[in-house]
Structure formats: structure tokens, C-alpha cells
Amino acid sequence: MNNEHQHRLVALLNKLAPFEGYTLSALEGVRFMRANCPLPRIPVMYEPSIVIVCQGRKRGYLADESYVYDANHYLVLSVPLPFESETEASEQEPMLAVALRIDLQVAADLVLALGKSRKDKMSAPAGIYSTPMSDDMSDALLRLLTALTVPDDAAILGPAIVKELLYRVLTGPQGGAVLASLTQQSQFGKIGKALRKIHEHYNREIDVGTLASEAGMSVAAFHANFKAVTNTTPIQYLKSTRLHKARLLMVQDGVSAATASNMVGYESNSQFSREFKRFFGRTPLQEAVEMKSALMLMQAERPADYAM
Question: How far apart are CA 249 and CA 162, in angstroms?
Fold first, then answer.
């Protein structure tokens, strides 16, 4: 990303995301991220998305691999994936980023339009990767943020620019990962479909044998391919998905730990509490209190007419 583009992007994000945390944009599927201080390595879960950091730095960890996303690299998750993330930021230079949800139907339409030319250049599939930022990507992002400052421009021009950014990802050096996740005949694509099913039905009992059968694999082959994409087992993936969903229910909707436990599919509240503390490092109550305190502090810093 060249310096001129970065300065303009940072100026726009300071206006569009003046407060810490996530800020929704005028366009569905696009939100802003801001941190004014460093954030330690914590468990996170992103939906299929493109994350572009314009200032500061984030680092993602999955097993023994780490992925830097900063002003020179963007992050792509081609499947819903739990991993760990830490943030470098300061009051003088806050971390400012844009997260764009990948619309799988739009992506599929682009893949179809690209046809054989893109399939011939497929790279090895991956669930998560970081890629150097190109001038075409930063130019499109600048136009998107500019459009998002004007409601009519956001509504009319925004979707086309988001589609252009996805096109740049698909035609970039590692676009084959998103392509592979949409190609059902590939092993990666079959696992991607299973991951989406888990996210849709995380509060129900999920049988690994059924998932394997739907993917056209033996249970052993399904486990091996699943772990190759997510670096975890199907059962552990389901557990982490449920715990993330429960955390959101407690923090955003104010439900109790017992209610959240039941809503995400746990039959035992004590088991939920044990697994939650093991995963997040705090009890459900401690985590809810901590996160709510942070949200209240953020709300107190906002003008009254801005509070959500």
C-alpha cells in the first residue's frame, strides 16, 4: 500500500470508526475495527471474510503458523475458522481495519464468470492466509471508504466496489483458497460445506458420520481432511463454535450463562462452565462482566445520539 493511499485511508477510518471496537457501516457485510491499545492473544472466530488493516498490525495464530495482517498484507478466511489473534496499537497510532464478509453467492458468480482461466491458476487451498496488498486492492478500498461517507453512494456504489475487492482476492496470488472452498467436488470444498452446516446448526447434535457421508468420504478420510483445513477435529470445532456463540449471547443479549449454555446446545451447565473457562481463561460470569464493562466504557465515551 503506497503512503498516499494509506494516509487517506487512515483519515477516512478515523471518521468512520471514531470509537473502539466494531462499528457497523452503511453497507451490510462491511464493518470497521478500531483498537487504541495493544490487545493480547485471544481466541476469535471469523466468518468467511477479508480483513484489511490500514494502520497498526494484527497477527493471527493457527497451530504452528502465524499470519500478519497490516498495511502491507490483508487476511482472507475462506471458511468459518476459530483461531487466535493479537493486536498492535497505541493511542497515537490506533489499529484501524475494515472487515468485509465474503458473500458466497457473489463469490460463486465471480468464479463462474472467471471460468476456466481462474481454475487453471488455482493455488493450494487454505482456510486462512495473508497476502501482500496490491495497488488495485488499496485503490478499490479507498473508493469504498469514500463511498461509505455518503449514504446514497454507499447504497448505490458500495456493493459493486465490494464485489471488485472480492474479484481482486480471487484473481490474486492465493485466490485459489476461496475458489476451492466453493468447488464442491474438491475435498476442501466438501469440508467448507460441512463447516457452514456446523455454523447453521451448532445448537443441535451433529453426527460426524452423517457429515462424512454427506461429503462422500469415510469417517477417517473426513477427519483427516477436516483437520487439514481447520487444524482441529470436528467435535473440537463444534465445541469452539458453541463457546464463541455463547459468549456473544451473554455479552450482546445479556442472557445468563445457564441460558446461553442451553441455547448453544449444552446439556450440562457445569460442563459448559468448565469448557468455557478452559477455552477463554475466565469463567462465563467473569468474561461477561469484563466484556460488558468494556462496552459500557466505550458507550460512555460516545455522544448520546451515537450510542447503539
Answer: 29
- The amino acid present at 142, given as its one-letter code, is L
Which residues make Cβ contacts (< 8 Å) with residue 260, sequence separation at least 6? 246, 247, 249, 250, 272, 284
Q: Strand pairing of 39-46 and 30-35?
A: unpaired
Q: Comparing C-alpha atoms, which of 220, 173, 216 is closest to residue 193? A: 216
Q: Is the pLDDT of residue 11 over 60?
A: yes
Report strand pairing: 95-101 vs 81-88: unpaired
Chain centroid, CA 215 distance in Å: 24
Sign of CA dihedral 233, 80, 88, 130: positive
What dihedral angle (degrees, nearest 10) is formed by the CA atoms of 248, 107, 84, 52? -100
218 φ, ψ to 5°?
A: -70, 160
Q: Which triple of cell numbers denotes residue 37?
A: 491499545
Q: 200-251, pLDDT tens digit by residue?
A: 899 988 899 999 999 899 999 999 989 888 888 999 999 999 999 998 888 8
- Residues 43/84, Cβ–Cβ less than 8 Å: yes
- For 137-177, the pLDDT digits (tens) are 999 999 999 999 999 999 999 999 999 999 999 888 777 77
Helix (H) or strand (E) holding 68: strand 65-70
Buried b (16+ CB within 10 A) or exposed e, 61-90: ebeeeebebbbebbbbbbbbbbbebbbbbe
